[in-house]
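COURSE: Structural Biology Practicum
ASSIGNMENT: Worksheet 4, Part C
STUDENT ID: 0417
INSTRUCTIONS: Below are two proteins. For each, the amino acid sequence is given first, followed by its structure token string. Answer the questions at the end about the second protein only.

PROTEIN I
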Amino acid sequence: MTRFGSTALHERVVAALKEVAGESIVPRFNKLRKEDVRAKTHPADLVTIADEEAEQRLTPILRGALPGSRVIGEESVAADPGLLKLLAEDHPVWVIDPIDGTSNFVNGIPRFAVIIALIARGETIMGWIHDPLTGKTIAAEQGAGAWETAIAGDVIRRELPAPPFALKDMTVALHPRAFAKSLGKFARNLRLGSAAHDYWTLTAGDMQLLAYRSLKPWDHAAGVLIHREAGGHNAMLNGMPYRPALPNQEWLLLAPNDALWREAAEMAER
């Protein structure tokens, strides 16, 4: 870790994630009241008091950790979509998903996480995914690799293991709209209800292929970087790299290597 004084920055972000998740998110798991949850754009698009409080608490911490930086989050963008324009500017921008997998969180399913990405000049420079229930964090820095920080503070380099040789032995999370005719070739198709846990499972080697149609930066900027720095290959189905600052991108595909990415991309129906 070398950029932005990044060792100290990484430690500060991890400390903030543990503190905010431990105080604003975990105590509310399985204890939400009816008035603590509301729908935003549609009934399945939920936000809770924990989402809002976590984002509000993380915002000044991240801004203070890197002078001159800006901060946007899923909930602040919901209130002011114009904030997304900050991603294309020169100054570094923190992007927060205070609870990825809010529906899981609301329904007592233990698959949710906090995601933070640091973006500069339209590219993801650093990224973090924190699991509040285990206290673990996976993170990456552009050009410096990916790693996992355990609750005790131990840091372990994260590298993708070799995938199974045959498609029939692979676990995937592929969007049925593009891969409906190919899903029978794989062992199973997972839907975890959390992009953060999809990326966690992918980089642990428990999933081999992952595809997303809709690409919000708070869901994907950190995970794409972590996957790539762990040794994976990812790109849009048109072969272009994912760029968190570009609006209206669709169809991202992630694989353990370039060869498997190409094989999977040929299966897609677009």
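PROTEIN II
(use this one for the questions)
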Amino acid sequence: MKKIAIIACLLAGCVAAGRAQESRQDISLSGTALIEPFIASQTDVQVHSNYALGALVSYRFMLTPSSALEANYGITYQNTIKYVYPQLPGGVKVLTRTQEAGAAYVRSFNYKKFNPFVEAGPAAFIFLPIRNTGTTTLDAKQQTGIGAVYGAGFAYEISPSFDIRAEYRGMVTKVPTFGDTALATNKWYNIFNPTIGVAYHF
């Protein structure tokens, strides 16, 4: 009888360890919106933009049950950034595709199936001008900016392997000039980046 009890305890421990091992990593795919704020600067350059839609892929590795490291890659389809300044009242438009590559530390708070979290970390942002009729200057060049991401959201477990994840993210970087000094604002962007998607744990 004692041997059966010992074997049962060992099996339960192995199952628990296996489940813990399974949940140490996850990958998620989310739809995103990129909303860049209006910028008015001391250089008399004003920056307007519309929103962009895109996707975000994230990989998390759990260090402990409540903390993780995360790697992110995001890309948007396109949006228009418009620069208006006294020398050109009609403005300059740059149709832009934005990419993000970054890492973050994630702190989670576990409440059964409902798991809020916060995160922050460094990131690089690539602003890529799209050369078509939506871009009204030939001088626009690809630009990479260094900055940071931060965010807060929640994950809701729908099965042991999947959860729904929603988050408000912020992206902080210098307002791009696309290599044209006439478009310089000397300002920082705090870009709004809400996301919603599905995560798979393995």
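ANSWER KEY EXCERPT:
Q1: The chain has a mean pLDDT of 89.
Q2: The CA atoms of residues 55 and 171 lie 15 Å apart.
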